[in-house]
User: Fold Lysophospholipid transporter LplT from Enterobacter lignolyticus.
Amino acid sequence: MRESVQASTALWSRGMAAVICAQFLSAFGDNALLFATLALMKQQFYPDWSQPILQMVFVGAYILFAPFVGQFADSFPKGRVMMVANSLKLIGAAGICVGVNPFIGYTLVGVGAAAYSPAKYGILGELTTGDKLVKANGLMESSTIAAILLGSVAGGILADWHVLAALGACALVYAGAVAANLFITRLPAARPGQSWRFNAMTHSFFFATRALWRNRETRFSLVGTSMFWGAGVTLRFLLVLWVPVALGITDNATPTYLNAMVAVGIVVGAGAAAKLVTLETVARCMPAGVLIGVAVVVFSLQQALLPAYALLLLIGMFGGFFVVPLNALLQERGKHTVGAGNAIAVQNLGENSAMLFMLGLYSLAVKVGVPVVGVGIGFGALFALAIVALWIWGRRH
Assistant:
């Protein structure tokens, strides 16, 4: 395959360092912008149930553009694709700064993120290969989670100080990500010359979707990662409402600190997965998935800050150990069948459909008045049972 020709035997290279740096800045901006925009909505008296809608328009862009972004990533040098995508994020963040409706501005950021994701993961298979691909995914996830950690905290703290300053800082960070993309090694396009007609592109995407869902290993990975990220984004919004109810704290910063503990845990879990799990032993990650749901149930019952921090750290560790091997499995198998960009686009469709579904249920539960603690307990229990079912199904097949 043309993609593998460019892969290096070394894990670190100039191109890999530039990708990790660009990813850190882009993810930092994403997470800071979310909390800054939520603070803006709070300042402008948007109802509580509208908060998940903000994330739903973001993931809606992933779903709408899923048939096209994989081919876009594979048809051009992926470093340049990442630069264009970060430029869209910059425009969206700047728009919110100057008074554009937050839902419109955040939708544009979502379009940029949808285009960015297949390129950022697909380029890993072009810069490295084999067993080092799991380690490269660990670096990518660690960079992402460090950005979630720092970006979430920065967004909350800056928003408590000045909402407009927080939004402006997000735009500057996206500008830094655009600049970092210029230093990524210019690799040849993985699959140039594909048709750009609408019918041909949608046919190509749905062919890739069908191929990946029919394969036992890639289907297992798609289901697992979709469940994880759907649960992760729901937990983030659950924390925003859980903190004032369970802890009596009403600032913008405390939910970001708690989200940061999940981020720290994922870094630790991702590192452990890189050392203990290979593509041949992916099933080792499944108990961690079950324990995520159990820990969420226990967390929802807490009424003190210290045990809440500890449990969210634990949830993050289980999450990192669970999702990193599944990502690597999909990239490796997808690269040799439908192309890495198409594989990640299909994954994004699954993950963001799960996010949209779970956020919709969460928003509905809040709107009809279900207590936030009850939402957390039900959410954790259902997630644990779903992972158990996936584990049993995987073993039988």
Remarks:
- The chain has one domain: 7-185+200-396.
- Residues 7-185+200-396 form a domain with the Growth Hormone; Chain: A; fold (CATH 1.20.1250.20).
- Residues 1-9 have pLDDT under 50 and may be disordered.
